[in-house]
Amino acid sequence: MGSTCFHTSAAPSSCLLSSTKRSYGLHDLKVGELGQLKVPISRTRKVSKVLAFYGLRSPPYKLDALEPHMSNRTLEMHWGELHRGYVEGLNKQLERNDILYGYTMDELIKATYNNGNPFPEFNNAAQVWNHNFFWDSMHPRGGNMPTLGLLDQIEKDFGSFTNFKEKFVDASLSLFGSGWVWLVLRKREKRLEVVKTCNAINPIVWDDIPIINLDMWEHAYYFDYKNDRAAYVKNFLDHLVSWDVATARIIRAEAFVNLGEPKIPIA
Known about the structure:
GO cellular component, one term: chloroplast nucleoid
Largest sheet: 4 strands, antiparallel
Domain Manganese/iron superoxide dismutase C-terminal: 149-248
EC number: 1.15.1.1
Number of helices: 8
Strand content: 5-15%
Domain Manganese/iron superoxide dismutase N-terminal: 54-138
Protein name: superoxide dismutase
Number of strands: 6
Radius of gyration: 19 Å
Oligomer: single chain
Order of helices and strands: EEEHHHHHEEEHHH
């Protein structure tokens, strides 16, 4: 796969900025329009340059909504400082590299991964993607069990939901250093699998389809759990993970992968 940081459990938001300081938010854009938008240039004001930037996207809930399992203090630091830092760092890099102008975030990650020899932009781009996906993977009323076809698919590929949870916990606690744990759909194998990646690496670089992810960098849990990573992982699975979002993601994935039976129901 081109990276020693890959293991298995078994073995954009954007805006346009110019020197006029005019900006456009994500809600003003449609998919695919980023590379086509143009900022109106005033005849009386000089505009030196127009660049595409990625914006900091808010989690889909208030920062205190995940308490007591993930605190407002953690979200303020994790999203408000560290995630913001990745966005700002990426934008500064893109200012110096207009070759990457207009890439979608997925395209940017795959291009800058460079077949396992990452360009400087890769870490910031992948961390922006990973964090957006992580915030969306949780919900204040999350946890419990998936339902309908997603549960059937998990039971088909792992033997049982309990087996899946054990593999996910084992991958999380055995990850050396910092990184991420993912439930992915392997496109070629047409099956779900738990994988872990080091640092910022994202499974889309190997053409896997992520379904959920868990941040296993120390800053994700230290305020709330100190060094008790097991409690952090357990609370994520029992109280935070959004199986509704996971179901929506695997329904979309079925547009690219024929899973056969059981078929994931749309409704």
